[in-house]
């Protein structure tokens, strides 16, 4: 039996906004074949267990409902691998602006 997640906990929810086949007709065919999904983070409105349908209040005060996915969810985004061509732009520009490098 899973533990109860207390009201006010920072959580993540998931909800399918539009299932496949109900997407707008102007979106590409590949997009129409997948659901439009929402993942949101916020403060839990009431005690619940993972998998329950819950309501959260986001950091900007928006109320949303969905399936409770995680408690204290991590931020897992990054900016990908470095692009070698971009790594030298800053120093090169500073050199150029200082007049130490011809155009």
Q: Give start-end ranges of low-pLDDT stretches.
A: none
Largest beta sheet, briefly? 4 strands, antiparallel, barrel
Number of strands: 4
What is the count of DSSP helices, taking H or I runs of 4+ residues?
A: 3
Q: What share of residues is helical?
A: 10-25%
Structure description:
- The protein has 103 residues and is α+β, with helices and mostly antiparallel strands.
- Helix content is 17%, strand content 31%.
- It has helices at 29-32, 84-87, 89-97; strands spanning 10-18, 36-44, 53-57, 63-71.
- Strand 2 (36-44) and strand 3 (53-57) form a beta hairpin.
- It is flat and about 65 Å long.
- The N and C termini lie far apart (68 Å).
Task: For the structure shown, list the relevant keywords.
single chain; 103 residues; alpha+beta; flat
Compact summary:
The chain is α+β, with helices and mostly antiparallel strands and 103 residues long. It has 3 helices and 4 strands.
Helix-strand layout with pairing:
Blueprint: E1 10-18, H1 29-32, E2 36-44, E3 53-57, E4 63-71, H2 84-87, H3 89-97
């Amino acid at each position: 039996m899973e533990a109860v997640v207390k009201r006010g906990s920072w959580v993540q929810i998931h909800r399918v906004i539009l299932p496949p086949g109900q997407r707008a007709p102007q979106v590409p065919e590949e997009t129409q074949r997948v659901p439009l999904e929402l993942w949101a983070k916020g403060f839990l409105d009431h005690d619940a267990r993972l998998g329950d349908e819950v309501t959260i209040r986001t950091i900007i005060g928006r109320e949303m409902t969905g399936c409770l996915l995680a408690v204290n969810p991590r931020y897992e985004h990054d900016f990908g691998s470095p692009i070698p061509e971009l790594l030298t732009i800053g120093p090169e520009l500073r050199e150029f602006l200082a007049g130490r490098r011809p155009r």
